[in-house]
Structures are given as structure tokens and as C-alpha cells.
Amino acid sequence: MKQPILTVKNLRTYFYTEDGIVKAVDGVDFEVFQGETLGIVGESGCGKSVTSLSILRILDEKGKIVEGSIIFDGNDLTKISEESMRKIRGKDIAMIFQEPMVALNPVFTIGEQIVEAIVLHQKVDETTAKKMAVDLLRKVGIPEPEKRINEYPHELSGGMRQRAMIAMALSCKPKILIADEPTTALDVTIQAQIMELMKQLQKEYGMAIILITHDMGVIAENADRVVVMYAGKAVEYTDVKTLFNDPKHPYTWGLLHAIPRLDVEQTRLYNIPGIVPNPLKFPSGCKFHPRCEFAQEKCSLEEPELIEVVNGHFVRCFFWEKVEQAKKKEAGDEQ
Amino acid sequence: MKPLVKIEHLVKYFPIRAGIFKRIVAWVKAVDDVSFDIFEGETVGLVGESGCGKTTIGMTLLRLYEPTSGRIIVADEDTTYYFLPSSKARSYLKKNYVERFQKLLKEKGSLDSLMNSLDGVDRRYAQIFFADAKGSTTRFLSLMLSNMDEKRKKFRRDLQIVFQDPYSSLNPRLRVKTIVGEGPLTHKLVKGEKEVIEKVKTVLEDVGISGEYIYRFPHEFSGGQRQRIGVARALALSPKLIIADEAVAALDVSIRSQVINLMKDLQKEHKLTYLFISHDLSVIKYVSDRVIVMYLGKIVESAPKKDLFDRPLHPYTRALMSAIPIPNPNIKKERIILKGDVPSPINPPSGCRFHTRCYMSQEICANAEPQLREVEPKHFVACHFV
Amino acid sequence: MRTETKRMIKRLMRNPSAVLGFSLLIFFTIIAIIAPIICPPQSYDPYMIPIATWDKTPQPPTAEHPFGVIDGRDIFYGVIWGTRTAFKVGLIVTLTSTVIGLLIGSVAGYFGGWLDEILMRITDIFLSIPYILAAIVVTAFLGMGLNKVMISLITFGWMATARLIRGNILQVREEQYVLAARALGVSDYLVILKHVLPNTIFPVIIQATMRIGSLVITAAALSFLGLGAPVGYADWGSLLNFARNWLLGASGEAFKYWYAIVYPGTAMVLFVLAWNLVGDALRDVFDPRLRG
Lengths: 335, 386, 292
Description:
Order of helices and strands of chain B: EEEHEEHHHHHEHHHEHEHEEHHHEE
Strand order of the largest sheet of chain C: 1-2
Oligomer: heterotrimer
Strand order of the largest sheet of chain B: 6-7-8-3-9-10-12-11
Largest sheet of chain C: 2 strands, antiparallel
Low-confidence stretches of chain C: none
Radius of gyration of chain B: 23 Å
Distance between the termini of chain B: 29 Å
Strand content of chain C: under 5%
Shape of chain C: elongated
């Protein structure tokens, strides 16, 4: 059996705000294997971004990891010193963001920023680093890298900026690349370019990717295994084919029927009623029960655990069999 | 079915100014010679990537921007001059009707053959010019420019918009009652506090928001609810056409389907016509009857939904479709990866605007601009190689 | 509105610096109101500090003159009645210059085009002249007196407001709710009144509040230079002007005349602080991003 390079167990990250405790991440489990892509999918406020920030421990001062472990290379990242964490950040685990304009410093050229990242973690001089930077930019598909290296972030288009950020993240050959909504701000044709690039780089570097997105399509095409999050909790966790062919949590099932799709004819989109809950006022029991069509009294009283219902398929629901029946009924309707 | 809106050769350029004298140094060619019709009761999907001009079309249609040139006909009236200052409106009418009619009369020789050569608004306006105004320019102008206030109000009632951003589209300092009631009050559809409240409650319940909430402020609602309030505001005027400009783009997946379903239901109930502007082909596919694909200010393809999605003909449409990630891991599809970025609309490429990124492009594409032509019934494509 | 107001007050009460600011302001207001009770005026013009002695050397605090005496005048009386002067200068100058700035800025912002261009160039010209220098020149030109000081401060004090409101209007004009209102057919006048102004005016109010404090300093600076109020007028700046000759103390005793500086100086510092804290608090309350 393969050994995971990153194991997240029962992660809980809370924010202590003046309005109360925000349980942004409240029970997330997953493993990341070398060369694989783990997808984290969910709607706004579900805690998917905070999960990634917790792995890198770059939460703001109000945020705190209150429980759980993040095992990387035999060390628990929640326990090691800030200094050792700094050595891991950027070198072993790198991150790219949704809006590269925010993550890139506007007053330095692309080249200066990549060179800085290289020099910080590797023992090379500036000339070598600069050569490496040019190579990296070429690798991520930026035309005329010798020229572009001297340009400022605002001189590049959105797609080029995202490429530059990927180059920066890859500068130290990280073992894990966290990509937080890497293509959300981009046009679809550019999104396709970037996702293609990431796949190709993953093959070349053999790194693991944690892909965070709200887009089920991006997940289906790029992830190997998927965590579905809702209200700070992992509600379903399995490999990508099983998730899409055989979703067992009512939320996953609803979500898959609520999106307009190019590949099937739809007469009506499924309605998940209600609103995405406010993290300050999460409902009792199962966080999804007010919006769930299969909910029963038990769901509002008790919180279900994430249990392995079939080999390698984890679901946080008391009544996941009901979804099975709904699926059977749906299959019947189609015939 | 008859067209509710006819857009003819619409052009919208935005000036770029620089220097102390604010000289115009360049033009952003946001929309460049676009023509299409919207028929009563249908949903037209307008799709394209950022910078293709789709939002500009919506804004120009509503006259939140004045068109640079072209004609916008709504419910059989030329509305192009409605919001122009009166001197500009006069010169528009003179140039587009008086001078044209006079020239045509010379060419055709007789009034009858002139009338026969015209149709639609042109024919009606020719009648006004030759019959009602007896060929007098001044009288024609005063006939056309009479009751402008009423005409403008009717235009505003007929065309409404729902914006993308559920946060900035509602005034944060006003209550829902004021926001939704503003339209009906402005158009005197309701009188007095009691009728306003009644009207607002009705529309709110139409969009699935409890009438009890009329005294709340926008920030007390979630994103999806705010978007419903935005729909209610448009709906309160009982419009014929609603322009939905990326109306669901900012919403979460589970909320998006609620709003899309709501808009479809409202369409049936209120016999609405939609111009649905979006960058998302999947949404467009779900809501539209007919789809128009734009690239850099031009229409590249337009067809009934089924034809377009079954048989996309323009290379850009194909690339766009192949770029959409499909939420089904069992399907492995051929992906067309376009090279490069969308060029700037300030300096669009010569010939076919797509040729710099096109996988089919040949020499002719850089030199000659392909015209939009009907290659199959109702299926229009602007490409040399289709 | 009630819940809204409640929330605002709750937020203010949680913020200690806001509480301090408002307390100081209330304190100064009370002082200004009850000045005639604390220090009953002794001549026909209550703003003229009565002469206690003809001896020009400063005299330390006593029971009769709790803040001491400078230039023969009672510092306590000057500080108390000076509060009224501070309010008068601060409020009149700020209000008038804000109104002028609002007018110029909103005309420029809403109508745009050539009008905007001309008005903004005029604003630039005024801005390019150093504030204090301009105020000194104008005051010197108009002659001495508090009114002249206020006129010169108003003349050179409206530009920031004009720029701020213009920028805000340009920004709000493009907001989707303004576009939506225009699409509803609401008239331009009502769009400005209902949608543009309410969303642009608060930064101006906040800025004006903060300016009241700094204006008092500028006015005091002019008085300190002998350009402001007439000799003997109850004004913190004038009191400091008296102290100018005694700043160095006596030989061997650097702080001998401390009271001549400390009392009016403290009053001024606290006054400025109060307005700044209040301005900060208002900004927190009115910033829609901070609303729950």
C-alpha cells in the first residue's frame, strides 16, 4: 500500500471573532498521495480555503487550530515550531491563489520575486537563480521569458500572471502544491490552458496537488480523490469516479443535480432549498439537515460521524441509504 | 412570433482620453456592428469571454450607455433617439429618416414604390413623414419628438435589468420596500403608502421572499435572497424584457440553481422575454432558446440552442465548448486548447478577429473579415471555412 | 432604524477610544456652555480676559487664579472662555468650508466634462499654495481679528472636501444600484438625492469632524504668530502667544513658568484629540464594510 505524504485527521480550525466563535473548519479528514490530486469542493464559507491555510499555518491572529493533526513527513505540522514551519512553507508545500494580483507584490518584477523565492530555500547565487527563473517561466508557457522576467505583475494578463505564480510556487520543486481556486478569476479558454499546464507539471515533478474549487467540472476532470465539504465539515470523501457515479451524501447528490450541465439534457435543475448557513449560526445536529430532503428528527439532534460505508468511501450521514433509493427511482424515471 | 427588440448594426466605442486637454487617443471597440433580434417570450443567451462586449450590449440596449451608431427598435418603435439631447435627436431623425426618405423618393420615383420598398418601422415612419407631416421636416420632427416623457417611461417599463453583483446592486442605505417600490412609484403604477406596500409584498412573494421582510435592509439578506430582490425590483414594473447580466455568476452552486429555476418560473407566469448574458456556457445551455456567441465585439455564431450545442460550427464556439470542464469523470473529451490571450479591443486583429488564436486560421483570415451568414436554417456563422 | 441605531451605539460603546473621544467632547461642550457660570464675565465683552494685575511677569497658580496669571491676565478665565472660541472657530470654519467644498465637488463630479475640468484645476491651484503661508498672507492683508482668521481659513480649507466628494460621486455613479435606478426611469435629481448623496456624504462628515481639531491648531498657530485674535482675547493660541517670551523660564529654573504653557496647551491637545477620536469612531460606524 502507498504511504500518504500528507494526512489530515479531524482538523478543527476556529476563528475567535468579536461576534463569536466561527467554526470555519470543524472536522476534516483526508490523505494526499504522491503524484495525485486531491480535490476539495464546496460552496463559499464551507471551510475549504481555511483548510489549506491551516495546512500552511498562515491563519490570521484570530484563527487557531484547536484540534486534529496534519502529518507531513512524519511531523505534525500543528505542533512543530514556527521556524521549522517556515522551512516547509514554499519549499515542501507551496501555494497558488485565486487572484494572482493579490499574491504577487506589485512593486517588484516577476523575476525579482521568483529569484527571491529560489534564493530563500536553495543554496544558489543570484545569477544561477535568475537563470533558473527564466527556465521556470519558459516551462510554465510564458513566451519570451528573458523579457517577461523584467516586467511587473500589472503588465501581464490574468492568465500570464497565474502562470508566473505557478512558476514561483514550483521554484523549489515542492512535494505538495496547494491550488486555491486557481482558475476561478480566469476566462474558460484560459482556465483550460492553466489546468492543462498544471497536469503536465504534476507529471513532470511528481508532486501532489490539493485542488480547492467550487466547480464540480474542474474536480471531475482533475482530481483523483475528492473531499466534499459543507459547513466546515467533510461530508463525503472518496475517489473521483465513485463520487460522481455513486454519490452517497444528500448534499453531494443534490449539488450534482443542481448544476447546469453540457453533457446531459436537463428539464429542471434540482433545488437544494434554503441558504448556505452563516458560520456563526450553524444549525444543530447534522449541519445540512435544514436543507436536506431526507432529513428526519434524529438529524437535528445528533451529529453524524464520517463513517466508511463501503471500502474507501466515507460519508457523514445517518440515512445515506435513502439517497440510494432516490438514485434508483431516478434511474427508473429515465427509462 | 414577432421581434420585441431589433438591434441593427449596433456600434459602441469608448474613448480613451489622455493628456491635459483630455484628447481622445484611442477607442475601445467594445461592440462593433452587431445585429440580432429578440422575439417575444424567448430567452436569448449571449455568451462570450471577458471583453467580448456582451455586457456593453445590455447596457447600451437599456441606454445606460448611448450607442455610437446603429438602431435599437423596441416594440416597433425606434428608440435610438429617446435619450439623446434634443439637438442630437433631431439630427438623428433627419439623417436616418428625412434624408433617407427623400433620397429614396428620388430613386424610386413614386411614393407607392417607395412605400413598397420599406417595411416595419421604416414604413410606418415614412407614412408619418409623407402623410401626417405632408413631407415637412419640421412637422415630422415635432410629431416624432412629441410625448417624449411618456415614450421614455414606457421604454423604461418595458426593459429592465438584473445585475450580477447581489451586493452592489442594492443601495445599502435603503429598505427593501423603498428599493422595490421605487419603480412603481416613479411610474405612478401605485398611489399612496398602502398600495406601495401591497405591490412590494406581492412581487417579493413572487420571487420567494416573505412579505414580512419589506422593512429590512439589504445587508440582512443572503446573496441569493438579494439577487431575488434584484429580480423583484425589475419585475415590479411588469417589463416585457429582462436583461439578466451575469445574474447568477456570483452565486453559490446550490443557490444558483434556485435563482435559475425561479427565473424560468417567472418567465412562464409573466410571459417574460429574457436576454441572458453570461460567460458560462452550461448556464446558457440550460436557460436559452437561442444562443449568440460573441468574440471581441462581434457575433461569431448564432443558432437555436439545440443546433448550437449539437453542432457548433465556428472554431471559437468549439474551443469554448471543449474548454468547459464536464462534471463527469467517465467522459474523456478532446480538448481544443487555444493559444494566447484574448487580444485588446483597442486594437483588434485585422480580418477575422479570432484569427490570432484560431487553430484553423489561414492567410485569408488576417485579410478579410468573414461576414455572418446563414449556413443552415437559423444557424449563422462568421467564418471563412464553414 | 432602531436596531440599526442600537447596533451603532453598541459598537461605539465597545470601543474605548470612541468612548474617550465622546466623553472629552461632551466635557468641552459643557465647559463652553457653562463658561459664564464658572467665570462670570467682568466687562461688556465676555471674551476679553479681565486684567488681574498690571505686573507683566507671569504669576504661579493661587487660589484666586488657579491656573496662574500671564501678562496680567487670568489663565483660567482664558482657558475656559477659550473653549468657546475653539468651538466657534472650528465649527464655523469647518461647516462653511465643507459646504463650499460639497458644492464645488458635487457639481464637478456629477456633471463632469469641462465644468469638472475647470473646477478641479481651480482646486489644484488653491491646493498648490502652502496652507499656513496662504492663511498668514490673507490674514495680514485683511487685518487682525478672529473673523479675518476664519475667512482666510475658509478660503483655503474647502479643497479636500471638494476632491473627496467628487471622487466618491465618480465612484458611486458607477455602482450597480445607481445604474438600476436609472434603468427604472428615476429622474437624475432623485438619483443624486436618494442614491448618490447618502452613499457619499459620510466620508465627508468624518473628514470634517477630524478637521475641526486641526483647524483649532492652525488658528492657534496664527494667534501665536500674533495674527489672530486681538490682545487679551480668550483664545488658547493667544495665551500661548503671551507665554512666548517666558518659554525659556528663568535662569536656573527652566520650568519656572510651566503653567503658562501647560494649561492652554493641554486644553488644545485634548480638544484636538477629542475630535480625532470622534472622527475615527464615526468612520468605524459608517463604514458599510464593518456592518454586521
